[in-house]
Amino acid sequence: MLTVLAFILALGLLIAVHEYGHYRMAVACGVKVLRFSIGFGHTLLRWQPKGSPTEFVVGAFPLGGYVRMLDEREAPVDPAERHLAFNTQPLRARALIVAAGPMANLVLAVLLYAAVNWGGAEMAAPILGRPVPGSVAQQAGLVGGERVAQAGFEGESLEPVLAYEDLRWLLTRGALEGRDVRLVLQDERGRSGAEHVLPLSRLDAKDADARLFEQIGIVAPFSRPEIGEITPDGAAARSDLRTGDLVLSVDAQPMRDSRELRERIRAAVLEGQAVTMLWRVERAGQVQAIKVRPDVVEQGGATIGRIGAFVGAAPEMVTVEYGLFEGVWQGVVKTWDVSVLTLRTLGRMVVGEASLKNLSGPLTIADYAGRSASLGLSSYLVFLALISVSLGVLNLLPLPVLDGGHLMYYLWEGVTGRPVSEAWLDRLQRAGVFVLALMMFIALFNDVTRLLG
Fold this sequence. Notes:
- With 453 residues, the protein is α+β, with helices and mostly antiparallel strands.
- It has twelve helices and 18 strands.
- It has helices at 2-28, 91-119, 136-139, 164-177, 210-216, 235-238, 258-266, 324-350, 362-375, 377-395, 403-416, 422-452, and strands spanning 33-47, 55-69, 121-124, 148-153, 159-160, 181-186, 192-198, 227-230, 246-250, 253-254, 269-270, 273-274, 277-283, 286-292, 295-299, 302-306, 309-311, 317-320.
- The strands form seven sheets. It has a four-stranded antiparallel beta sheet with strand order 5-4-6-7. It has a four-stranded antiparallel beta sheet with strand order 10-9-13-14. A two-stranded antiparallel sheet has the order 1-2.
- Strand 9 (246-250) and strand 10 form a beta hairpin.
- It is elongated.
């Protein structure tokens, strides 16, 4: 239920803001707006403010909306109102009205990011977990447990890293854009110390997925190898492990973080039989040696070990908060970065340098909406900002059925002094519908594949 509600709220808000951008600019340019609709199909709500020419409607099918303006191309117009018709407006006014929808989504994204920045968000500290063996991070000399103080692209200025999510975003951009990332670590006294360069340009990344971060080697923030809640009758309970035990080593091999411990547990199976491990744990200030024999289970066609306990302490958290103006500026920067990355990824998909798996449809959006809402208001607002940026950028693409397509027509009109002919409009609209339908099919196919996978 939470997923459905979060999805409907997200769609309703983002579509309403987009269409409101068109509506407000149309009114400001002196165009008569006949209908403002959120959703299509059967009308659920309908009202018309006193003295307003605009009818406001909420439809049953929420995937879209529209603003219907007075226009001679759609219906006869009273000569007395011809100056209020959209098609009679100067080119600049028509372009502003069309561009206002996507721009409203981008402005909303800035405000959402700013709201998160002002309110302060609890985020994981930028402390690195143990790098994946053989990964870029391990080859660069990282071992896990390092706190990142500053980071940036090679050859550019470095910026402070306040939270792990900042670092993850930089690594995502670096991998997809083929740019190396420089990390400056914090020493024991809290000062900037050693530097490491991650040569992400060597990865030739096509997808921003879990496999990409496995290749980079920085998968999750640092989590102490601590035993959490224990399941009765599981291997942990039989071995007399207790909640709060800190695992120092397994078979004399030091455990740097919880991820390394989980891998050792999973691998403690030989020819279908559990392998007994010798653990050294710290409990109430005392070090104890405990033998642990995991349970053997089947998962995804593989035989692995399980101990029946939650493994790993919660990562260290920090509160990231900005002042009034700095919060807005950071919102602008994040919106710009996401927009640029979206455009670059789309461009790389067109030329075959990025996978079409990066396209997501309504099922994935709904899933992410539910997950982010369950994590709290800040996470949900960040999700809304990301989708708002995507909606704004996608609508500016030069596809004939989108706002960017209309702007493309106006650019032609501005350069040549004449509008696009009706014959070409028809051809371009058909081509645009085909391309958009193909993109939606691929996105929906990716959704189903992710959910079934």
